[in-house]
Amino acid sequence: MKRLSSSAAYTLLEVMITSFIFTLIMGSVIALNVFAARSSQGLSRQLEMNSNARVLNRLLMEIRSAQTVSIRNYNGSTFGVIPPGTQQRGNALLLTLYDTTNSTRQIAYWLSNSNLFRATINGTDGRLWLSNITNSYPFSAQDYRGSTLSNLIDRVVVDISVGLIVDSNVKDYRQTLLVRTGGTKRN
Amino acid sequence: MFKRLQTWCRVPGAGMTLVEVLVGTAVFALVFGSVLTGITQASYRIAWSKYNAAATKFAEQRMEQIQSAPLELTATPPIDAVVATNFPTDYVDMEKFVGTTNTVRAARTVTIDSVPNSNPNALKYKVITVSVVWSYRGRGPFTNMLVTVRAPDQ
User: Fold this and answer.
1) Quick one: how many helices (H) and strands (E) in chain A?
2) What is the ipTM metric for this complex?
3) Is A53's CB within 8 Å of B57's CB?
4) CA-based R_g, chain B, Å
5) What average pLDDT does range B106-110 have in this prediction?
6) Long-range contacts of A67-70 (CB under 8 A, 24+ apart)
7) What are the chain A neighbours of B92 within 8 Å (beta carbons)?
8) Average pLDDT rounded to a whole number, residues A106-125
9) Where are the domains positioned within chain A?
10) Which residue in B17, B40, B50, B56 has the most chain A C-beta atoms within 10 A of its own C-beta, making it the best mutation to test that interface?
11) To the nearest whole angstrom, how far is the Cα of B115 from the nearest Cα of chain A?
């Protein structure tokens, strides 16, 4: 392209091409930033899920060392006993353990408003354990074949199934991580 | 600065050549592509780590079931429920994506072997292996394996 003189301005074509390239680069950079921000948010949730799956380790350890386990139904104020003869599946779990002073203490896990809580009965250590749980009855008493029991037996397997919402952004897509595990009391 | 730029250019006031533009674009694409790849790889690895934790929990569940199965070889008649047929292969969808049929499915298998011992009075130990096999985004299969040894109930 031959210029008319050294002080000539840009031609329309040059300006248009420059604008196009500028738009392309800026668009790419902005898209990358938006993508990175969304990824960062998603990664945080995924990492949280990863640690949530590991949080269950404490629960399993307490089941294994428990003297007694009992599946209950928590109604907001009391831990209701599931009558013998009906399937032992509920939203709460009561464990009796011996502590280091050889005295018993009871630990409760219960589901309330999609959150799993843990506390020592008559203690002050109550805290939120897991959040964003999708199912209503995460605990059940099973035999070694995986059949839900109607009556508690000595070698009961406490089955734990929790669905954890990974991404609640319904505009995009929603993922639910299903974690299934179980523990048998050893005593 | 401007004077140096003018010296660098072959013709004062001339624009960039096609090669310069192409090289510049290639460098930009390379940097941009690297950043994008880094983000997607990090995302993949974290998701993988999450499924890995869930698969281990799934294996632990089966192992606990096997640990609670009766194994009383001194009883009359002997009771041995620690056999592979009592724990058939099963499947679980570790993750569900609402609005799609996509799932991350894991298959769980159990193998049980006896530890050979020539002494007839020795305890009959069993080696229990639980494997959870899963794939994600066309990669894999990945296997989470738990192995333990169980003695008969006393």
Assistant:
1) 1, 10
2) 0.72
3) yes
4) 30
5) 95
6) A67/A96, A67/A97, A67/A98, A67/A104, A67/A185, A67/A187, A68/A95, A68/A96, A68/A185, A69/A93, A69/A94, A69/A95, A69/A96, A69/A141, A69/A152, A69/A156, A69/A158, A69/A185, A70/A94, A70/A95, A70/A152
7) 178, 180
8) 88
9) 32-184
10) B50
11) 22
Contact yes or no for A145 and B96 at CB 8 A: no
Q: What confidence tens digit (pLDDT) does each residue in B56-73 have?
A: 989 999 999 998 899 888
Residue pairs between chains A and B whose CB atoms are closer than 8 Å: 109
- Residues linked to residue A73 through DSSP beta bridges, in sequence order: A80
For A105, other C-beta atoms within 10 Å of its C-beta total 14
Average pLDDT over residues B77-92: 92
Inter-residue contact A90 to A75 (CB < 8 Å)? no
Q: Which residue has the higher pLDDT, A54 or A162?
A: A162
Q: Where are the domains of chain B?
A: 11-150
Task: Give the pair of three-digit tokens for residue B134.
Answer: 């899963």
| pTM, to two decimals | 0.77
The pair of structure tokens assigned to B79 is: 């009771």
Question: Residue A169: what pLDDT?
Answer: 55
Three-state DSSP at A43 gives helix
Least confident of A47-51, A141-145, B34-38: A47-51
What six digits make up the tokens of A50? 């990863």
Interface of A to B at Cβ within 8 Å reads: 3, 6, 14, 25, 28, 32, 35-36, 39, 42-43, 46-47, 49-50, 53-54, 56, 60, 142-146, 155-157, 159-160, 166, 170, 173-184
Residue A93 near residue A56 (C-beta atoms within 8 A) = no
C-alpha B22/C-alpha A187 separation (Å) is 73
> Counting every residue, how long is chain B?
154
Helix axes A12-64, B18-68, angle to 10 degrees: 10
